[in-house]
Amino acid sequence: METIQISTEFIKLDQLLKFTNAVEGGGMAKNVILDGLVKVNSEICLQRGKKLRGGDIVEFNNEKYIISIEEK
Fold this sequence. Notes:
By secondary structure, the protein is α+β, with helices and mostly antiparallel strands. It is built from 2 helices and 7 strands, in the order ββααβββββ. It has one domain (2-69): Structural Genomics Hypothetical 15.5 Kd Protein In mrcA-pckA Intergenic Region, Chain A (Roll), CATH 3.10.290. The chain has helices at 13-19, 26-34; strands at residues 2-6, 11-12, 39-40, 43-44, 51-52, 57-60, 63-69. Helix 1 crosses helix 2. It starts with a strand and ends with a strand. The mean pLDDT is 94.
C-alpha cells in the first residue's frame, strides 16, 4: 500500500489517479471510474469528483493508496 501525502483538506478521485500516475490523463481517469474499476474504502466508486480525505483507501489496478494529510 502506497501512502499519498496531500497538503489540502481533500483530493478528488480523478486527481488522485493522475497524481499517482495510475492513469495517463483525465480522460482515462474518468473512464476507469465510470467503468467501475476503482474502489474507495472497499466499495466501487463511480464519482470522479469524490472527495478523498485522510484515511481513505483507493484501490485500482491491483494497487492500493491511502490518503494522508501533511501536518502543517
